[in-house]
Amino acid sequence: MSDKLQRLELVWPGKNERVDVEPRILIEDVEKSYSADPKIQEKINRQLFKQEPEIAPTFDNMLIHGDNLLALKALEAEYSGQIKCIYIDPPYNTGNAFEYYDDGYEHSIWLSLMRERLEILQNLLADDGSIWITLDDNETHYCKILCDEIFGRKNFIADVIWNSRKSISNDAIISLNTNHILVYAKQIDIIRTKAKKNELFKGEIDKTKFDNPDNDPRGKWTATPFDAPEIRENLMYPIKNPNTGEIYLPPYGRHWRTTQDEYERYLKEGRIVFGKNGTSKPQLKRYLNEATDKGQVLTTLWNDVDTTTNATKHSQQLFGKNPFTNPKPENLIERVLTLASNPGDLVLDSFLGSGTTAAVAHKMGRRWIGIEMGDHIYSHCLPRLKKVIDCEDAGGITKSVKWQGGGGFKFYELGSTLIVTDKHGRQVISDKYNPEMLAEAMCKLMGYKYAPDKETYWKQGYSSEKNFIFTTTMNVEEQLLAEMSQALGDGNLLICCGAFTGNKTAYDNITIKKIPQAILKKCQWGSAGYPLPIREDFSDEDFEFEDEE
User: Fold this and answer.
1) How high is the pLDDT of residue 537?
2) Is the pTM of this model over 0.90?
3) Are strands 346-349 and 367-372 parallel, antiparallel or unpaired?
4) Least enclosed by CB within 10 Å: which of 64, 201, 394, 519?
5) For residue 327, is the peptide bond before it cis, meaning its omega torsion is within 30 degrees of 0?
6) How far apart are CA 421 and CA 429, in angstroms?
7) Which of 30, 65, 60 is nearest to 378 (CA)?
């Protein structure tokens, strides 16, 4: 047996076969971009400021149509480390026929498909960010091990069980009524710190559990245990019930939550109760105002949010006879965003479906990026988000968050491939790229941020304060470099050009590269995408949604 250390990992056929994804540009379709009417928006802003000034409609949102792997690659350089919360609902690999997704991939293909996307998503997450992945039993456990490799096992937060269906499937051996939501942190230590400060991962308080039967001037309260785990000798004092005279010690293996002096102070202040009738062990009052400030730690069992059936009814209200199949309820996404983000934070969903994540993020004052490859981005996402902005969607969380409309988004199509093969079999720059598009594409490929300087035409992008890039298909002559070199000073310039005349090494602060030769091996060109195939044999009979009480 070899003594060589081996890594514990999930293996599958094709795992070592990787794709070099082309970082495409995104092209705005101005006609599809949408914003609230300015006059209406001004009125909305005034009303919102009176109610919740920290929550305002967002405008710098992105709705992207195209293969989501290509789209994620397009976002990676600019948005790396900026996404606070990622929620994805990828295909479950069940073998069932969905109208918009064929999720009958064999395990190895599904894993490869997910691995490429998850690696980019991990790069996009902020240090205090988290990713939430909804799956069912078919792939959850494979995905858990895959995520352990990508995000790190120590960054696993929880496997949330969502009660997605109430009715029983009588033709199943065991009725599948739940989905998993795998939750990972980018950096778990940062999440823990922020959770302790009540900045993240604190759910809303169930106010129905609070009452004020004794007219306490501090307001409504609920009784909580006065004992805590572990034995601590300094917290093991006897407590006498003033009503019955009975003496209590902490239960076996536990201690009282405070010192005896603190207990006496709480008792005088009326913060200690002895059960509903005053005849049992001590309990500590937890006041509603204190609980609201701190929030509530939630469990991994979520059976108190809506089901897929509820979400389908909402989808029918939105889209009439063309509802989206298997949508997620808005209050499920609301809970995720409440735990993982704050108003103004950036949220991403790269399997947008009918637009639920974007709709909820918008209503909650988060900025958002939504990616969808199917044509239902036109038939479902666009009209839905317009209704949200115009406050014409009365369903979902609209009433609970007091949404009044407003905001906007920009709609983008994924650019075509930069390099194509001409009739002579040569790899050339696509004629679909004008000079501005080419400059932006080269910035992505060479690791620069596209930001054309208004005064200096050859400063089209930068990688740092003193490093710039200039792209042109024209012939560049050496005499032009003298002027550029002097203007750069101690800065540097990368010139990507179709041809060059002169000495390329004449100036130390200028580097010349010829295109397209310099980029031909950068990535895989010409791919139409890495999509989930769309089935053509869908039938309404493939789905049956039962009414739930």
Assistant:
1) 34
2) no
3) parallel
4) 394
5) no
6) 9
7) 65
